């Protein structure tokens, strides 16, 4: 049965700060993010980057989960790395907003799902580090940055860990994925559990054990919605948001 709008979970989606063709500052995201949330049964809500921490907290009490999206690079100072010529688009205010969102979600025990930059940001926020540029710092890497190809280009497989929640969600051991990143996880934060690796050994997904839904992937499943396993990933996330809504609602009913 199709859920009515008031029954659907509210899913926050992080945004990117850019300038449009007129030079005006805007908050933006790629359309496949909210489209994927909507197709999975959620109501997408865009989160601007200029809210105070108090306003972010007030918003999070109403949201049922948050999707951390892709984008430009995390500030290397946050993981003890010197400036690197290949690092681009650093937005320290976005880093701080997303880190605050994450810490508050953990306190509230609300679901989160992270994609590409989102995976990297969460790893850094919880004490991990990154390779600033894979071609330079990760010898033997497969080609991970494929922005010259269609965003749904299947670049390589990932090998899922047999004990991961991710393999249960995707129902496949070696899904093929796209790849649109030049950075990656160097050291995994202590509280996180590895869930998938690329053929070159680079970590491609992790999970937060014990959390209602805490999964992050390095690829872009929102661009692969014609593939059932990638749709299942959004469906599992939105379903967890619905469960979270019920558990945080008065009387325990959505």
Q: Could you characterize the architecture of this molecule?
A:
The structure is a single chain. Helix 2 packs across helix 3. The protein is α/β, with parallel strands linked by helices. The chain has an eight-stranded mixed β-sheet, with helices on both faces. The model has no long low-confidence stretch (mean pLDDT about 95). The longest helix has 21 residues. The chain has a single domain, classed as Rossmann fold (3-Layer(aba) Sandwich), CATH 3.40.50.880.
Question: What is the residue-averaged pLDDT?
Answer: 93
- According to DSSP, the number of beta strands is 14
Structural class: alpha/beta
The neighbouring-strand order within the major sheet is 4-1-5-6-14-13-12-9
Fold topology:
Layout lengths: L9 E5 L1 E4 L5 E4 L3 H8 L3 E5 L5 H10 L2 E4 L23 H17 L3 E4 L1 H9 L3 E3 L2 H4 L18 E2 L1 E2 L4 H6 L5 E2 L6 E4 L5 E5 L5 E5 L6 E4 L10 H21 L6
Key phrases:
254 residues; alpha/beta; Rossmann fold; eight-stranded mixed beta sheet; two-stranded antiparallel ribbon; 7 helices; 14 strands; 30% helix; globular
